[in-house]
Amino acid sequence: QVQLVESGGGLVQPGGSLRLSCAVSGTAFSGATMGWFRQAPGKQRELVASVTSGGTTNYAASAEDRFTITGDNAKHMVSLQMNNLKPEDTAVYYCRLWRRITPTYSYWGQGTQVTVSS
Predict the structure, then answer these.
(1) How many Cβ atoms sit within 10 Å of the Cβ of residue 75?
(2) 3 state DSSP class of 38
(3) What is the pLDDT of residue 76?
(4) Which of 11, 48, 84, 105 is the most buried (most CB within 10 A)?
(5) What pLDDT, in 10s, does the model give residues 30-63?
(6) If you ran DSSP here, which 8-state letter would residue 30 be given?
(7) How far is the C-alpha of 76 from the C-alpha of 83, rounded, in Å?
(8) Cα(102)–Cα(97) distance, integer angstroms
(9) Taking the mean position of all CA atoms in its chain, how far away is CA 94?
(10) Nearest to 50 by CA among 37, 31, 38
(11) Is the peptide bond preceding residue 103 cis, with omega within 30 degrees of 0?
(12) Which residues of the chain have pLDDT under 70?
């Protein structure tokens, strides 16, 4: 059974930093992509950042220059370092593992709350 377990959310003041981590068990990473999505109240879930098993990264414009995603295939983990956080970054952050080539799959974590407020 595939499990994604997130950690590291919390309350932080504007300008502060948080590091989210996601540990994956139960499947291999070959050919897969890992990423972080977020969903704020009343808004659609959106991609924040992703990294392929080959190390290629992709960022949303809102995350560029402030967030860094790191994948560790050996440890089956992905992390998101978030710096200079803003109130608009407040959301539930979800870890996702997906593969678009056969065999395809998509797995989500349970989500972790990030609140940026003074």
Answers:
(1) 10
(2) strand
(3) 87
(4) 48
(5) 788 999 999 999 999 999 999 998 899 999 999 9
(6) T
(7) 23
(8) 14
(9) 6
(10) 37
(11) yes
(12) 28-29
